[in-house]
Amino acid sequence: MKQLFTTFYQLKERVSLDFIRYLYHEIRWNNRLIAITGARGTGKTTLMLQYIKEHYPGYGNEALYVSLDNIWFTTHSLFELADEFQKMGGKALFLDEVHKYPTWSREIKNIYDSYPDIKIVFTGSSLLEIHKGEADLSRRAVTYHLHGLSFREFLLFEYGYKMEALTLSDILNRHIEMAMNVNKQLKPLVAFNEYLAYGYFPFYKEDKILYHEKLLATLNTILDVDLPSTEKIDYYSIGKIKKLFAILAGLVPYIPNISMLSKEIEVSRISLLNYLSYLQKAQAILLLDKEASGIKQLAKIYLGNTNYAYALGGEKTDIGNVRETFFFNQTVVKHKVTYSSQIDFTLNETYNFEIGGKNKTQKQLAGVENGYLALDNIEIGFNNEIPLGLFWGVKTLFFRKVLLLHRALAGVSLSI
């Protein structure tokens, strides 16, 4: 156990508090059992270490961070760790990469029940579903999900520019004022293009030149390592999932023909639908639902974020696809997003958006109520024409909370 504390102290010493992700301020850290999921590279480990550094200063025994893929666990159990930690006066246990420990859910449940004085915070893959483990933790754990950097966070992380999170109402009604304020601080179009190409995952700062190569390697690891550890899936199926992703990457945005895709991948319809679900959970793709019309509609498929588009397409990347992917990726975190045969995106079943460049016309909004253009390559908007970059992590509106409460009785998180 001494080795675990030594490693923890070194990690804690190196972590910086200069930049803190949005989720840090959303988490109710006083809860006894907290689960944080998210894709590799979004910053879950850093988030936990920052909290420890701020709330457990020094090098005492009250808090301990461990990664469950540490070799120590080849000869010791997680419950054994908690028992020893409690006897040392430990109060908060931070567990990283729990999906790599086969009996994680059962042992965390046992620790939770046996040691009521210990708080547990654990992280896992975006593929992780805490109710599907050996022990259902969903009634005990408060769960949060960490997304990649929003454009607003990128501006702070890369340039040190602190921008306010905007409500949809602010963007629609005060976008000229908002854009003028932004333009006083920076050239937004330069920063926006940088974000689209490489700004979604914080690890881009390690090496911007090799970022795309590392990004695809990270996705490969998610499919090779994280997926088998969370789902009962064999290597043959992983190969099929990779082939499916490669095909979809060349077609997005794409309304899938399930029969055609099944034949091309050489799998059953059910397997194909499962594979699409896995890619969505891995945040490799986004699925956009069509407006409800009484009949279940096939979702339109996008890549998970704009960085994937540039990593796969290079100089041939389709900018129209990138613009739509950005809008969807930024708004879906806090809002219900759908599409129709006429409109690119509808937010909260009310506000309709067409996405494009600065020369896009109002033609497709003819006869559409609450219609807006979200346009690239403009710094200041006019009337219903809004700079695309202002949708940089849209804050939840009050009416959105009411909608969710009425429809799902779900809690609503705060702004990013």
Task: Tell me what the structure shows.
- The chain is an alpha/beta fold and 416 residues long.
- It has 14 helices and 12 strands.
- Strands 7-6-8-9-10-11-12 form a 7-stranded mixed sheet, with helices on both faces. Strands 2-3-4-1-5 form a 5-stranded parallel sheet.
- Strand 2, helix 3 and strand 3 form a beta-alpha-beta unit.
- Helix 9 crosses helix 11 (269-281).
- Mean pLDDT is 90; it is low at 397-416.
Helix and strand topology:
Elements: H1 2-14, E1 33-38, H2 44-55, E2 63-67, H3 78-87, E3 92-96, H4 104-114, E4 119-125, E5 142-146, H5 151-159, H6 168-183, H7 188-198, H8 211-230, H9 235-249, H10 258-265, H11 269-281, E6 285-290, E7 300-303, H12 306-313, H13 319-331, E8 337-339, E9 345-347, E10 351-356, E11 371-375, E12 385-387, H14 398-408
Parallel strand pairs: 1-4, 1-5, 2-3, 3-4, 6-8, 10-11, 11-12
Antiparallel strand pairs: 6-7, 8-9, 9-10
Q: Name the helicity range.
A: 40-55%
Strand content: 5-15%
Helical segment tally? 14
How many extended strands?
12
What letter string, H or E per element, gives the SSE order? HEHEHEHEEHHHHHHHEEHHEEEEEH
Low-confidence stretches: 397-416
Give the C-alpha Rg. 22 Å
Structural class: alpha/beta
Instruction: Give the strand order of the largest sheet, numbering strands 1, 2, ... along the chain.
Output: 7-6-8-9-10-11-12
User: What does the largest sheet look like?
Assistant: 7 strands, mixed
- Alpha-carbon distance between the two ends: 37 Å
Rounded average pLDDT: 90
